[in-house]
Amino acid sequence: MKKVLFFLIILLQTLGYSQVVGTPYITPPVEVQRLILDQVSVTPSFAFSTRKLRADYLGFAIRLRRSTDNAEVDLTFDTNGIISDNSDAKIAVPGSSGLAVNSTQTLASFRGAATLFVTIWYDQGANGYHGVQTTTARQPVFSLGVAGLTNQYASLVFTGSSKHNVTVNQTMPVLLGSGLRGSVMMLAKIQAGVTTNNSFGYSDTSDNNKRWSVHMNWPDNNNFTYTDFGSSTDASRNFLNDATVGFNKLKQYSMIRSTTTKTVKMSGITKQNNIALSVQSITWSAGSTFGVGLTTGALDTSFNQNGFTGNIPEFILFPEPLTVAQYSLLENNQILFWGAY
Length: 341
Description:
Elements: H1 2-15, E1 46-49, E2 62-66, E3 72-75, E4 88-93, E5 104-106, H2 107-111, E6 116-121, E7 131-132, E8 141-147, E9 153-158, E10 166-168, H3 172-175, E11 182-190, E12 200-203, E13 211-218, E14 224-229, E15 238-240, E16 251-257, E17 261-266, E18 269-276, E19 290-292, E20 296-297, H4 298-301, E21 310-318, H5 324-338
Parallel strand pairs: 12-20
Antiparallel strand pairs: 1-21, 2-3, 2-6, 3-4, 4-5, 6-7, 6-8, 8-9, 9-21, 10-19, 11-16, 11-21, 12-13, 12-19, 13-14, 14-15, 16-17, 17-18
């Protein structure tokens, strides 16, 4: 039996869990599953998730604020490497709770009947570029049991009209290669909206047409996803993402921006492939940031547009375009783990 298991493991490792066209994804046994950031040697600019992403990460998963008394806790991953009711909740800010700083209880005990809001989504990469939201009205809701094939995992829940988001306070040249090149590997469940949906990234405060951002679902023109990686004027900016394709369904998104091209995939299906881009260099205004859940910059401050509506349980940004081999590994991992077919 051990010999059979050994050969099965080697076979799956050799295949890299690849999918044969027309067949369902097969979840590999636990013995061959590796944490997603341990599968490639590229260091992300930042990596957010409600699951553990690399074996050597020993920090917290997320910081949550309780609605009833504004107490805040830092959560650990549980023994299965996810956020659950069994996660330890360490008091970081007591609010009016009377709880002692650094005291610990389970998330289930801390939550009770309260609503939980996200104040920090911790970066599991090496940089410590956390996603932070100090404005209470803009803090995403945290919810258990809303992501995964059987809704077994936790997620951040965003409301676009409330501009829910977390912001990485690092400039675009720090987060992206030459302020332009990069790769997004993420999960999202989009809700249909009737207003603007500026989902992540940054729009320049001096020139709104200079953007590194995405509308996960723009309500005009029959609901398209717009990818503006450097400029809002490039050709081939969008693809259909309506109720038939992506609404209310957890999907995996790979978005790769090189110096001259972009490739976009949704749950393994190519939507845009090696699209030629005219913008090959860009200079950002001082003070650029990166929002997850809202495009920070001009679209927020000058145009007062709304953000993303739906769930995002995982968002990873790399500072360079990943190779096909690299993003395929990560893509398969995300699809398999989250059941995002």
